[in-house]
Design a protein that fits this description.
The chain has 191 residues and is mainly β. The chain is 13% helix and 36% strand. It starts with a helix and ends with a strand.
């Protein structure tokens, strides 16, 4: 009985919290459900479709400024997207997540990095390096992203693809791909 009461209280609290967070995001569709806590930065540059759900620990950040440099980020999330625990999306350029995407826990998606791999940049503290983007990240419809995956800049994942746990995606893959490894490699195409 006590567990039922606690779960009911948690459910009501998360409904209220979802409505509060929703106010800080530019466009949010119907049936927006998140769990406390969630961090939103640059919500005015984020668009989320219908039937979005996220477990606790989700960070979504559209950075408009870093070390005096201006950015024009855009994050677009489609309909029926589900995000598990402790995921992070960071953007200074553009990140698009299509419809029906399932994201497991501890996934990191970014379109930028701190500095470059040059001799000059290596002499600067990472937090002081210029943030730059090598390109946008596009995750097409019905992609399943496994636990602990990192998706790095200038990547396009084709629709219906599956990314195995702990994969580091550094390049683009066509539709129906099964991807795994560090760095991510094509394991097979689902015919």
């Amino acid at each position: 009985m006590v567990i039922k009461i606690i779960n009911r209280f948690r459910s009501i609290s998360n409904c209220i919290y979802s409505q509060i967070i929703k106010l800080g995001i530019a466009n949010v569709g119907r049936n927006f459900q998140i769990e406390y806590p969630m961090r939103v930065l640059g919500g005015e540059r984020i668009s989320i479709g219908d039937n979005f759900s996220s477990f606790s620990g989700f960070r979504i950040e559209a950075f408009t400024r870093h070390n005096g440099v201006q950015f024009n980020p855009k994050i677009e999330i489609g309909n029926n997207v589900s995000i598990n625990f402790d995921c992070h999306i960071g953007c200074i350029n553009r990140i698009v997540i299509g419809n029906g995407v399932l994201i497991a826990s501890k996934v990191f998606i970014t379109d930028h990095s701190h500095g470059d791999t040059t001799k000059d940049d290596i002499l600067i503290s990472p937090s002081e390096r210029k943030v730059h983007s090598k390109g946008e990240v596009i995750i097409e419809d019905n992609v399943w992203i496994g636990e602990g995956v990192a998706i790095l800049p200038n990547v396009r994942i084709g629709e219906n693809s599956i990314i195995g746990a702990n994969t580091v995606v550094t390049k683009s893959f066509p539709r129906n791909s099964v991807i795994g490894g560090i760095p991510g490699k094509l394991i097979k195409i689902i015919e």
